[in-house]
Structure formats: C-alpha cells, structure tokens
Write a structure and sequence with these properties.
Distance between the termini: 44 Å
Shape: flat
Oligomer: single chain
C-alpha cells in the first residue's frame, strides 16, 4: 500500500508543496528518470535552467520498490498525475522515430511534461564521435591523435543506415518478430577491429549488412515504395546516413561497438606514453616514480565515457535543450 501511494503521488502534491513555501523560496520541480546513470545525464540537461525561482530534483520513479525503467517513469504520467512541477525524462528509444504509431510513442511525444533524448538513449550521447578523442585524453593523458573517430563512425553509420531503415519499418509495421532489434544488433557488430587495419572491420560490416538487406528484400517483396517513403521520413526527423549510430540501440553502441574500439585506441596511447617514460634520459628511480605517477593518474574508459559532456554541442542535444526551454516559457508567468 505504501509503495502504491508513493508511486502515485501526483503533480498536484508538488504544486501544493510549492504553494506553501514563501514567495521568495525556489520552486521545486521533480524530474523522474529511468536509471541511476540517467540521474547524472539529466542533471547536465536541467542544471543550466535552474535559477533563483526554480530548482530540480532528479530521481528514480520510486524510493520504496526501487522501480526503474521507462514504463515505471511513464506510469506517473497517467490521468491526473501530470503537471508543471513533475516531469519525466526518458530515452527516446525508437519511440521518437515511430511517431505515435504505438501507445508508448504517442505518450512520449504528446505530453508536454515528458522529455526524451531524440537519440536512442543517453549512451548514444556518451559515444558522440566528435568527443571520443577527448575521452581518450582523459583516460590516457596522451593527446596524440592516432585515430579518426569521426571518419570511422561516419562510415560505420553510412553502412548501417539502409538496414536501420528496415529496422524502424519492422517496428512501425509490427514485423519486428521477423527482424528484431537483436537481429539488427547482431548484423551491425563490426567485429575484428584492429588499429593496424580498421578498414577491415568496416568491410566485414558492409558484407554482413548487404547479405541481410538481400534477405529482407526477398522476405518482403513489393516493399520498395514503403521503404523509400520511410527513409525520407526518418531523414526529415533529423537522422542522417552519417549519424545513424546515434539512433541505434544505445547499449549495443556503447558496449559492443565504441568501448572495444576505444579500448584498443587507449591501449596504444598508453603504450606510447609508457615508451616515452622508458626512453627518457633519467635515472631509473625517476623513471619508476614517473611510471607510478602515470599509472595512478589513468582513468577507466567506461567511467570517462559516462561522465564526459562533449556531446552538448550536438544537433539532437540542442533540440532537447530547446524543448526544455519551451517548457519553461510555457509555465513562466509573464513579466
């Protein structure tokens, strides 16, 4: 009973609590998020909008049952449990691209109190290609550019894009049992990436994608017009062939694609820095001390990926900020 009461606290409760405060007290706005990692991400989104009149408390949807996930967040936004003092902040998943063709997609897109990432999930922002070199520097303390992340993920995206359109089509039309997100992820795993020949992984990926495309065209003959129409719609929503990786499943991109590649790049940068220390004209004791200092200063790759904010200049993140700004414009009293 206690958990149900807490989970169903309506926005009117927060509005009433705010009304009881002094007029000079700041307004408290509760932001429900899906998981612990989301708390930090959405704090980076909402923090800049805090001022003398308002502040946020970013939290999970339940402190009693420790509920997590998108459904748990959105359950607080049914019927009367909505309002300007309580907002939901969720991953877009495919719901943005489905454009209201499912109940969850409709709820995410229609409610003025639900904000979504535009990209598939926060992990996609964390894997933003333009910021990955900075992550390498944070991990290895070596600023040598030895790999072009932007070029690699541009080409990776261009290879995946035709199959990505099929994936969205499958979920829009209810054909996902015949081409699921897991199927799509298996095909789009590069595999075999090496620093010596990164091109080989892209060629391997291209062969797998082409094979699957031919398979889908065989399974769904006569689908060309619907496919081309959806491709144009997806592009109109902001997805480009060069940025497809931002809209693919976030955990797949983070754990299976980006983290392994980043690990190999960082390993080479670490070896380069260690070699410089070994070759330095210094006493052996100095070298040992320097090596110990360097080793103690290095950071964990996944931690740095989750904590950096180099994605804040990206186009989808700017769209998210614009949504938050419109929300405040709509609830702020006229000057």
């Amino acid at each position: 009973m206690a958990s149900r009461i807490e989970d169903n606290i309506s926005s009117q409760y927060f509005e009433a609590a705010n009304a009881m405060k002094s007029k000079r007290a700041r307004r408290r706005i509760v932001a429900y998020v899906e998981s612990y990692d989301d708390i930090y991400f959405w704090r980076t989104v909402l923090g800049p909008f805090e001022n003398e009149q308002r502040y946020f408390e970013v939290m999970l949807p339940s402190k009693v049952q420790l509920l997590r996930g998108k459904k748990s967040v959105l359950m607080n936004f049914i019927g009367e449990h909505v309002g300007p003092d309580m907002i939901a902040c969720v991953d877009a998943d495919y719901d943005f691209l489905l454009q209201g063709s499912t109940p969850t997609s409709k709820q995410v897109l229609a409610s003025p109190y639900v904000f979504h990432t535009y990209v598939y999930a926060i992990e996609n922002y964390q894997c933003y290609a333009s910021s990955l070199h900075d992550v390498c520097v944070a991990v290895t303390l070596n600023d040598h550019h030895i790999f072009d992340f932007e070029d690699y993920f541009r080409r990776f995206s261009e290879i995946c894009f035709p199959l990505f359109v099929w994936s969205v089509w499958a979920y829009r039309t209810g054909n996902y049992p015949r081409f699921s997100l897991s199927d799509f992820n298996r095909v789009t795993e590069p595999g075999g990436f090496t620093m010596q020949d990164p091109e080989a992984s892209l060629q391997h990926l291209r062969r797998k994608v082409q094979t699957k495309l031919h398979d889908l065209q065989r399974k769904f003959p006569g689908n060309k017009d619907a496919y081309l129409k959806l491709k144009d719609e997806i592009k109109a929503l902001g997805v480009t062939p060069q940025t497809t990786y931002l809209y693919m499943q976030g955990h797949h991109i983070f754990d299976v694609v980006v983290a392994p590649i980043l690990g190999k790049v960082c390993r080479m940068l670490q070896q380069e820095r260690q070699g410089e220390i070994y070759q330095a004209q210094a006493h052996s004791t100095q070298k040992r001390n320097e090596m110990s200092c360097y080793e103690n200063s290095r950071q964990d790759i996944k931690v740095m990926l989750k904590k950096h904010t180099g994605y804040m200049g990206s186009a989808p993140f700017r769209r998210l900020l614009a949504d938050v700004q419109r929300y405040f414009d709509s609830i702020s009293p006229p000057a």
